[in-house]
TrEMBL record, chain A:
Gene Ontology CC terms: plasma membrane
Membrane-topology annotation of the record: Peripheral membrane protein
Entry keyword set: ATP-binding, Cell membrane, Membrane, Nucleotide-binding, Transport
Protein name: Amino acid ABC transporter ATPase
The family this protein is said to belong to: Belongs to the ABC transporter superfamily.
Listed CDD domains: ABC_HisP_GlnQ (cd03262)
Gene Ontology molecular function, alphabetical: ABC-type amino acid transporter activity; ATP binding; ATP hydrolysis activity
Top-level lineage group: Bacteria
Organism encoding this protein: Gluconobacter wancherniae NBRC 103581
Major subcellular site: membrane
Presence of the UniProt keyword ATP-binding in the record: yes
Subcellular location, record wording: Cell membrane
Span of domain ABC transporter: 2-243
TrEMBL record, chain B:
Presence of keyword Coiled coil: no
Compartment(s) where it occurs, according to its Swiss-Prot or TrEMBL record: Cell inner membrane; Cell membrane
GO MF: ligand-gated monoatomic ion channel activity
Organism: Gluconobacter wancherniae NBRC 103581
Domain ABC transmembrane type-1: 307-495
Protein topology in the membrane: Multi-pass membrane protein
UniProt protein name: Amino acid ABC transporter permease
SUPFAM superfamilies per UniProt: MetI-like (SSF161098), Periplasmic binding protein-like II (SSF53850)
GO cellular-component term (any): ATP-binding cassette (ABC) transporter complex
InterPro entries: AA_ABC_transptr_permease_3TM, ArtM/GltK/GlnP/TcyL/YhdX-like, Iontro_rcpt_C, MetI-like, MetI-like_sf, Solute-binding_3/MltF_N
Positions of transmembrane segments: 307-329, 341-363, 473-492
Keyword Cell inner membrane: no
Keywords associated with the record: Amino-acid transport, Cell membrane, Membrane, Signal, Transmembrane, Transmembrane helix, Transport
């Protein structure tokens, strides 16, 4: 359902991504791991074109956007269509601080999808209930704990009914017990059949929750496969070195 | 200000004259209209507000113009303008002629077309009552002498040498400095000397009239037709004794005038206007609480009008400043390279040049390109365009204060750039921007006093008028100052409210969660 191929990106001569490809089945939970600065975030952001790749193509559902050369107006229009299927969650939450939690979740459906207000509110309340924030939905984000903020951010993304969710280190800013609140929401979504791609440094989660793990280094996918197999017996020397330094 | 006057005269007459319309009087609404201008602020006895009825314009020049208009079968229409704007207003066709004791010096003759002289006068020395000597020009040497800027008397003192000269914009300031001892003497045109110096109990006119000079009516240089008509009418007024009559009523008929007109008759004409003015001044000087309260209550309507004008100009200017400022800030922050450049240049130019110049440029300079704005529109526009540059910088700082992640989150939610700005970025930027905006509005209120140079009578102009008519800088100053504070107060409160409302959810800003 998601197919990225040959994604390349360089910043002023620094080749950050050297033609990454990734095929995702519906319902899969994929973890992307790798050393700091290897291009994980850049890759994830290329999937919904927050970052414009120099080359490569992304297909999500029935929308394909192939990039070559400079970013055009037509590209932006196509990216807009593609983003309709993608939700994204950031390490620093990026909730809108001037709106309540409920309004954060309702805003995009009302403004972007022109959903009627009552309907948007019903959807938002249901989602907030689901991520365990039913009691605090009238609060402003600055009155939430980190874990609550990240769950609100997930609800906000889900309100747009995406078919794939992207997470860029969703728990790196959180204490372990708060992380668990967020991770359990993600596991629940997995159970519901949501397709999810997670950039993470949390190896326990990567191993226990994902269907597949991608190890990225030097702008390339070095190794990918079943988490248990990879963590138990990495094939590539670079993967082995990386995992050893962590454990 | 008088130096500026000369500069403006130069500027305006160097500018291309894009239109030659000899038949219709410039600025006239119809063929019988005769619009004329003068600076009626504290300009006794030329053209001034009657102290007994503040809204009534009087003065010997006013009477002269009325008589001229009657001879010409036209209707005189008075237009108030600041001294500095009088001549530029001619070429802007705001009016057809200027009558304001303008001396017919070679410099002035180069800039405007003059009628024949309507008054010939000389300089007089004014002293404190207790002072003696100092009754000739020579005797003024080694003394501190006050005079008006850019006048014959100033040049006389320079030529004399050895005098410590203080040149004033307003004669009333010279008189108060004479009173408080900063000056030893004042040298001024005889009419002013008579109406200020001779009326006060603590000053006196001394010595003989010194030198002579002529006042002429000024026209724009391409308006020879009207000049000739006025000259003819003036000739008749001289011949049939009307001018004599007017001047005698103002106690201004002198041997010099007899000499100039060849009219040696001595009809028995009572100096009604002179007496009226002296009585009005005598009854307006008084003391005691009741008297002062009555007087200040009488000023309230004028101060109120001035305050309304200040508020209207500032309010509308602020609306322009906020709207355009936001556009400029967005252009500089998110626009394409050329747009960023243009917006940047605009901000730098506007912030790098004085507001006064901008006001004058828009009002007097733009007509050279065929853009004629009313004083009100020009004032609002000048202030609005100026403050837009400052608001733009303010908003840019506000936009920069919003973390990058906010825009990314909005885009990831599939908002368009515009939606992201409108719903996410601008509301957050607004919060950091409101306190600065309040300050800006307060200073805009104060800067709006600059539009008085383009004939708008707002608060500070009201102050100038009242204080110089009644020699009361203190009480009227307090009144007008209070009016400014009152105008600003609601906005400070409004800003506090807005800050609280916008501050909701913005950690630390409000402190009442
Ligand atoms: N806007 C940018 N301009 C220049 N270089 C950039 C930019 N964004 C990222 N990079 C560089 O690209 C490389 C990959 O960055 P990226 O953020 O994708 O790494 P990452 O794998 O997510 O690292 P981390 O685990 O620390 O988050 C880094 O070397 C970074 O310095
Ligand atoms: Mg990263």
């Amino acid at each position: 359902m998601l197919q990225a191929s040959g994604i390349a990106k360089s910043y002023g001569g620094n080749d950050v991504l050297r033609g990454l490809s990734l095929d995702v089945e519906r319902g899969e939970l994929i973890s992307i791991i790798g050393p700091s600065g290897c291009g994980k975030s850049t890759f994830l952001r290329c999937l919904n074109f927050l970052e414009h790749p120099d080359a490569g193509s992304v297909r999500i559902e029935d929308v394909t956007l192939a990039c070559q050369g400079s970013w055009s107006r037509a590209n932006e229009a196509q990216a807009h269509r593609l983003r309709a299927h993608v939700g994204m969650v950031f390490q620093s939450f990026n909730l809108f601080p001037h709106r309540t939690v409920l309004e954060n979740v309702m805003m995009a459906p009302i403004q972007v999808k022109r959903v009627a207000r009552e309907q948007a509110q019903a959807i938002a309340c249901e989602l907030l209930e689901k991520v365990g924030l039913g009691a605090v939905k009238e609060r402003y984000p600055d009155r939430l704990s980190g874990g609550q903020k990240q769950r609100a951010a997930i609800a906000r993304a889900l309100a747009m009914k995406p078919s794939v969710m992207l997470y860029d280190e969703p728990t790196s800013a959180l204490d372990p017990e708060l992380s668990e609140e967020v991770l359990s929401v993600m596991r629940a979504l997995d159970e519901d059949g949501m397709t999810q791609i997670v950039v993470t440094h949390d190896m326990r989660f990567a191993r226990a929750a994902s269907d597949r793990v991608l190890y990225v280094e030097g702008g390339e996918v070095v190794e990918s496969g079943d988490p248990d197999l990879m963590f138990a017996d990495p094939k590539d020397a670079r993967t082995r070195r990386f995992l050893r330094t962590l454990l | 200000m008088r130096a500026l006057f000369s500069l403006l005269m130069l500027l305006v007459f160097l500018a291309p004259q894009l239109h030659a319309e000899p038949v219709v009087v410039p600025g006239a609404k119809d063929a019988t209209d005769l619009p004329w201008a003068s600076d009626g602020e504290a300009n006794v006895p030329y053209v001034f507000h009657d102290p007994a009825h503040e809204s009534r314009i009087t003065g010997f020049e006013k009477d002269l113009v009325d008589a001229l208009a009657q001879k010409m079968h036209r209707k005189a229409r008075f237009i108030q303008n600041d001294w500095d704007g009088l001549i530029p207003g001619l070429s802007r066709d705001l009016y057809a002629m200027v009558v304001d004791g303008i001396e017919m010096t070679p410099e002035h003759k180069a800039a405007v077309l003059f009628s024949r002289p309507y008054y010939v006068t000389s300089e007089r020395i004014i002293l404190r009552k207790d002072e003696t000597g100092l009754d000739t020009l020579e005797a003024l040497k080694n003394h501190k002498v006050g005079t008006l800027k850019d006048t014959t008397s100033e040049r006389m003192l320079h030529r004399l040498g050895g005098v410590t000269i203080s040149s004033y914009e307003e004669e009333t300031n010279a008189f108060s400095d004479l009173r408080n001892g900063r000056l030893d003497a004042i040298l001024l045109d005889a009419p002013i000397a008579l109406y200020y110096g001779a009326i006060s109990d603590d000053m006196k006119l001394v010595g003989e009239p010194i030198g002579s000079m002529e006042y002429g009516i000024a026209f724009s240089q391409n308006n020879r037709a009207l000049r000739d008509q006025v000259d003819a009418a003036l000739g008749e007024l001289i011949k049939d004794g009307t001018l004599h009559h007017i001047l005698a009523r103002w106690n201004l008929w002198t041997p010099l005038m007899a000499n100039y007109t060849g009219d040696m008759s001595e009809p028995n004409i009572a100096p009604d206007e002179w007496n009226r003015y002296r009585e009005a001044m005598a009854s307006s000087t008084g003391s005691g609480w009741v008297f002062l309260a009555r007087r200040y209550a009488g000023f309230l309507p004028l101060v109120g009008q001035g305050a309304l004008m200040t508020l209207a100009v500032s309010g509308l200017a602020m609306i322009i400043a906020v709207g355009l400022g936001l556009l400029l800030a967005l252009a500089r922050h998110y626009g394409a390279a050329p747009l960023r450049f243009v917006a940047g240049v605009y901000v730098e130019i506007v912030r790098g040049t004085p507001l006064l110049i901008q006001v004058l440029f828009i009002f007097y300079g733009l007509p050279a390109f065929g853009i004629r704005l009313s004083p009100f529109v020009a004032g609002v526009l000048a202030l609005g365009l100026n403050y837009a540059a400052y608001e733009a910088e303010n908003y840019r700082a506000g936009l920069l204060s919003v973390p990058r992640g906010q825009m990314e989150a909005a885009i990831a939610l599939n908002m368009t750039h515009f939606q992201a700005l409108r719903l996410v970025i601008v509301p957050q930027a607004f919060r950091t921007v409101v306190p600065v905006m309040t300050n800006d509005f307060i200073s805009l209120l104060k800067d709006s006093s600059l539009v008085s140079v383009i004939t708008l009578t707002e608060l500070s102009q009201t102050y100038v008028r009242l204080s110089s008519t009644y020699y009361d800088y203190f009480g009227t100053g307090l009144m007008v100052g209070a009016a400014y504070l009152l105008l600003g107060l609601p906005f400070v409160r409004l800003a506090r409210m807005a800050e609280r409302r916008l501050g909701r959810g913005m950690g630390g800003m409000t402190g009442h969660h």
